[in-house]
Inverse folding.
């Protein structure tokens, strides 16, 4: 009940609970926690994202596919690792915080982020960014250095592709066909 009251107050005041995570970064980056609709947030989020790929070559990466039916697939890839599903399940967003909840298909221990602040970044306002609360936020705070913009791109997942109502199921099936490798986790 207190959480609901906090969320209602935050909504009425225009301040989302996700904004609290961004306070330590406000003097270096113009970030705003946002509460988009399910349809607006659905899409592929990547690291490296489109802007970071223009700055540095990538030998590894991670992708988070958020589908409009509130399911997700999280994959990782590298020069010697094909795109592989590390996690999948359902997602929700409340107060500017995206929460991932794995499902029973994942029988191995996952180490990816389970909560992200949904961000609008004024330097790059065209799309949303996702900044992991459990690992990436602290890493960014500790390593922000002289180039805050670059470090934000290094730590966040950037919007990379939208899904239409007509193609998201096809994309979801294709990702599972090419990246579902549960044998990879058997001895881990």
């Amino acid at each position: 009940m207190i959480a609901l009251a906090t969320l209602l107050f935050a909504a009425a005041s225009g301040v989302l609970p996700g904004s609290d995570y961004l306070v330590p970064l406000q003097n270096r980056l113009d970030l705003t926690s946002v509460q988009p609709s399910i349809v607006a947030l659905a899409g592929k989020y990547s690291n490296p994202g489109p802007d970071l790929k223009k700055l540095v070559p990538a030998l590894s990466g991670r992708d988070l596919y958020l589908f409009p039916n509130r399911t997700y697939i999280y994959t990782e890839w590298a020069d010697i690792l094909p795109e592989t599903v590390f996690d999948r399940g359902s997602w929700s967003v409340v107060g500017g915080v995206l929460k991932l909840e794995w499902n029973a298909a994942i029988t191995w221990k996952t180490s990816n982020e389970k909560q992200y602040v949904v961000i609008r970044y004024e330097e790059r306002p065209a799309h949303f960014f996702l900044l992991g609360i459990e690992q990436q936020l602290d890493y960014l705070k500790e390593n922000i250095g002289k180039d805050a913009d670059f470090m934000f791109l290094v730590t966040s997942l950037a919007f990379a592709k939208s899904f239409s109502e007509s193609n998201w199921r096809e994309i979801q099936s294709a990702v599972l066909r090419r990246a579902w490798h549960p044998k990879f986790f058997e001895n881990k």
